[in-house]
Amino acid sequence: MAMGKILSSGPILFFLLYLVALVSLPADAAVKRYQFDVQVKNVSRLCHAKPIVTVNGMFPGPTIYARDGDRVVINVTNYAQYNMSIHWHGLKQFRNGWADGPAYITQCPIQNGHSYTYDFNVTGQRGTLWWHAHIFWLRATVYGAIVIMPKQGTPFPFPQPYRETNIVLGEWWNNDVEKVVKQGNKLGLPPNTSDAHTINGKPGPLFPCSEKHTFAMEVEQGKTYLLRIINAALNDELFFAVAGHNLTVVEIDAVYTKPFTTQAILIAPGQTTNVLVQANQAPGRYFMAARPFMDAPLTVDNKTATAILQYKGIPNTVLPILPKLPLPNDTAFALSYNAKLRSLNSPLYPANVPLKVDRRLFYTIGLGINPCPTCLNGTRLTASLNNITFVMPHIGLLQAHYFNIKGVYTADFPDRPPQPFNYTGAPLTANLGTTSGTRLSKIVFNSTVELVLQDTNLLTVESHPFHLHGYNFFVVGTGIGNFDPAKDPAKFNLVDPPERNTVGVPTGGWTAIRFQADNPGVWFMHCHLELHTGWGLKTAFVVENGKGPDQSILPPPKDLPPC
Length: 563
Prior knowledge:
Structural class: mainly beta
Mean pLDDT: 93
Largest sheet: 6 strands, mixed
Number of strands: 32
């Protein structure tokens, strides 16, 4: 029986089976097989029932468990009316972009009634990642956790927790999300914000009809618990805290950090954070809570999702205590929290930061307005990098690159914006048109890249979480205002910067990242706010093959979905 199916009979049974599997497996690599059936199921939240797209009828979907060194084989069969593709967020997919999953970037989607097997190795990675649909806004309900255990016999570099729990943060719309988005696009405006945030698919008791839709975890006095926190929300950066309990951050995006203790964490869409929580308070019931961070003048769903941390033996009649979350616009907390994130950089887990840079890129992030004769005001909101709004192709970019198919994309994405300006000065409201195209940037194999992402005040400044597929990168610097190439690099952290796959570019500021282009293929880079991705805030890198035998893209699998 496939593990994905086992899961539907309950997480406890699955966890026991998982422990049995761990005991019985040899220390070397194993093959973990899953069957993902994409199917529509009626689900009720907030007094509203609606059909949603799920995997195996579960919301959130099943957790993928693997070990560093394992091969993972996931057969996805699509029974839903929508085309589907699934991205394994944060897995490097070395030479194997065919398993990465973003629709029209590395594959054409899986059509109704068809299957595709994602077959990949987990190499040199351990920790919390996640998977989600990577087409339309279907990841609103099609998502789940990936838990990668260290190799057999390798301990965590922090105190061994007594138990662990996944905390997957999401968003819920009462209406059909795809219809909400279509309506917004028709008007040329942002669609309605979500109606609730969720923790493990449940909004918690602060919402109507949600008493039974509340996630709870039981703890024992004196024990330590590992929370694997994932932000699967579509458009909201979130604060998360547990009333009365400190959180010790030990990992971000499946990379160990220097541990530090905080009352709350900030987590952007696409990011993961592992924290240790000690059950060292007076036995009772304590709310875990998540709500958005937004320090720009924009509308968000500002409601608080809650779950319950309950000490063993405490009755359900005891009212839980709410945590003190930072204020929704607490920029100072956001900046100071992110500044505390540092790679562990130990002999076992070194931070191999590129010190020499072969290619320097500077990308401006902008919102814009383009003509749209059929839209409400005759215009449509759009987004761009270096003033280019990305146009999705009709066949996978990886196929076009691998088979040398002409006319699908051009490899002329500019290394810097067409004209410099005062990026973060007063709001710019004139000349907001962008150019459109499927333009990619070609990168020489094994070269080191420094990319500065600069927010701009085109319409408004805003925080943007950027995700790079196929790689981790080091966040060597960040700042508010305009990046100064003469002064700012002197302040870069080249010793123990945080290593991650998704980074927040601060509102009205910049972030500098470095990575070594040692993974050939076509790798998507985009804002992880679904709204902005849909508006064109994305591009891709074509990393060329190297000369060695294991430095080129693997051949495509036989069952790659047709275009």
